[in-house]
Amino acid sequence: MPNSHGAGGLRIAVISSGPDEFSTIHTACTRAGHTPVAYIYGRSLRPGGPTLSDAGETTAAILDAVPTGMDLLLPGGIDGLARMLESYNIDLLIVFGFAWKLPPDVLAIPRLGALNIHVSMLPKYRGPAPLLWAIRNGDRTGGATVHWMDENFDTGNILAQQDGIPLVEDITWSAYCDEALPVIHDLLDKSLALAAAGTPGTPQDHSAATYAGFMEPGPPSVS
Question: CA 121 from chain center: how many Å?
Answer without folding.
Answer: 14
